[in-house]
Amino acid sequence: MEESTTISSTATLSGLNFTEPYYDKKEKCWYCVAYIKRDDAWNLLLPRIESAKAAFYAPYNNGRKETEPVFKYSFFAAALEKGVDFQDVLDYARIIHPKTEESYSSDREAINSVQNLLITEKGKCTLFLALQGDYGNILTEAATKIFSETPFSLVGSEKSANYKATVTVDDNKVGDNPLSISPSAKIEIKSKSGRSVYADVFRLETKTTAYSLEKAQTKAYPQLADVMKQELPEKLAELFNKNGK
């Protein structure tokens, strides 16, 4: 008994050459052989390789130079994405010209290092959440859930955190009896060194009217929490991915 294995793959080839077609009368079929001249194919592929290399090393080198973990993470996240394209081009280059492609071995090592670099920087993105002016922990619970779904790792003490997110709530109260509020939440994230890495304000555009502040807060704060849930995740995603744009 004989066993055989057939492996097939799909690839877009460039630099193809073709033999003269010939007709097989017995099979009633035309045949033509396609082949690649490796040196010519490499020269055609080289601009793509160098373009993918430049796209990868731009965020990679910036990540190496950056000192702030949040921004290092952002750069390395972009490098990870660009590295996929670079790796694909190098894999194709290895098929075309294995010996010449070996000169990119250090680049492959750089590509393979990015995932661990991301993990390292994520471990440094520890965050202490401080919320001022909440009512019934409504906004605290919303903010905690939002931040827990980012690369930030929430910690229980400011001393052990590399970042502090301060959320300041303002009722923007008008009147007294009845009174109206249109609360807002200002969020600022600073590093331990005092560097501001993010700041924004989330507002409830509608007014809530009641005869006591507590009743107004009971109605309005869940709505403000919804605004934060809708808008803040996207803003934080931009923080961790902005260097890939």
Q: Can you describe this structure?
A:
The protein is of the alpha+beta class. It has helices at 38-65, 69-96, 98-101, 105-124, 138-148, 213-241, and strands at residues 16-18, 22-24, 29-31, 34-36, 126-132, 153-154, 163-170, 174-175, 179-181, 184-191, 196-203, 208-210. Strand 2 and strand 3 form a beta hairpin. The model has no long low-confidence stretch (mean pLDDT 91).
Task: Please trace the helix and strand order, writing H or E for each element.
Answer: EEEEHHHHEHEEEEEEEH
Described by strand count, sense and barrel closure, the largest sheet is:
5 strands, mixed
Mean pLDDT over the residues: 91
Q: Proportion of β residues? A: 15-25%
Work out the helicity level. 40-55%
- The low-pLDDT segments are none
Number of strands: 12
- Distance N to C terminus: 57 Å
Shape: elongated
Helix and strand composition category: alpha+beta
Could you give the order of strands across the largest sheet? 6-5-7-10-11
Structure annotation, total helices: 6
Radius of gyration: 29 Å
